[in-house]
């Protein structure tokens, strides 16, 4: 009896996962490129990036700044509004706790 209950639980879990991650999910053509950064001060860095997403699709991106030991010292989530253009260049000023040495997009997603 216990084996049957466990098998049903595993089957239901797999089915829910397959529906959630299945063919209906799309990346909306989401792609990013880091173009550079400029350290403004010990507490601010501007990160320049290019974000490409299907026209008419809004996206959000997490932009981060790292220090010499690759510790995150600044983080900001920005919204990329829907547009007719596929690719857009964005400049994001990120406040930092200490001086950063690099800045980049950590991740983007379609909300």
Quick gist of this model?
The chain has one domain: Sandwich (Immunoglobulin-like), CATH 2.60.40. The chain contains 1 helix and 6 strands; from the N terminus they run αββββββ.
Please provide a written account of the structure.
There is one protein chain. The protein is built from one helix and six strands; from the N terminus they run H-E-E-E-E-E-E. With 111 residues, it is α+β, with helices and mostly antiparallel strands. A three-stranded antiparallel beta sheet has the order 1-2-5, with no helix packed on it. Strands 4-3-6 form a three-stranded antiparallel beta sheet, with no helix packed on it. The termini are far apart.
Set down the secondary structure blueprint:
Elements: H1 2-21, E1 31-41, E2 44-52, E3 59-66, E4 72-80, E5 87-95, E6 102-109
Antiparallel strand pairs: 1-2, 2-5, 3-4, 3-6
Essential attributes:
3-stranded antiparallel β-sheet; 111 residues; 18% helix; alpha+beta; flat; Immunoglobulin-like
Query: Which strand order spans the largest sheet, edge to edge or round the barrel?
Result: 1-2-5
Q: Give the CATH class.
A: Mainly Beta
Q: What is the CATH topology classification name? A: Immunoglobulin-like
| Strand residues, percent | over 45%
Question: Ends: how far apart?
Answer: 42 Å
What is the CATH architecture term?
Answer: Sandwich
**If you compute it from the alpha carbons, what radius of gyration comes out, rounded to the nearest whole angstrom?**
20 Å
Number of separate domains: 1
Write out the CATH superfamily name: Lipoprotein YajI-like
Regions with little confidence, pLDDT below 50 for 5+ residues: none
Shape designation? flat
Structural class: alpha+beta
The tally of beta strands, per DSSP, is: 6
Number of helices: 1
